[in-house]
Design goal:
four-stranded antiparallel β-sheet, 4 strands, elongated, 102 residues, mainly beta
């Protein structure tokens, strides 16, 4: 997963996921994020963000899309981050990312 999307307010980027004591991903092996290689990122701008956020209630939504077990070689994780208007549910941007964890 994109380490910046998962770090929230944590100042350490490399292993913030492990310190969050996050709920394990069902069916995924124990992951060691210090052995992570960033993969591809696909950004889709559905609607341009306004020049000011005054009066807007934006929310960043993080989702796990898929986990691909590569056996003894590691795991590929696909995540999705979307910026939406919290009140209307209107989608502004969507980023689908992948990363390999050995």
């Amino acid at each position: 997963p994109n380490p910046f999307a998962l770090k929230l307010t944590d100042q350490e980027v490399a292993d913030s996921y492990a310190r969050q004591k996050a709920v394990r991903i069902l069916g995924a092996p124990d992951l060691h994020h210090l052995h992570r290689v960033d993969g591809q990122h696909q950004l889709t701008v559905v609607k341009p963000l306004p020049t000011t956020s005054a009066g807007c209630k934006f929310e960043l939504r993080n989702n796990f899309v898929d986990v691909h077990d590569k056996g003894k070689h590691g795991t590929v994780i696909e995540t999705e981050q979307s910026i939406v208007n919290r009140e209307s549910g209107e989608l502004y941007t969507n980023v689908v990312s992948s990363g390999f964890i050995a």
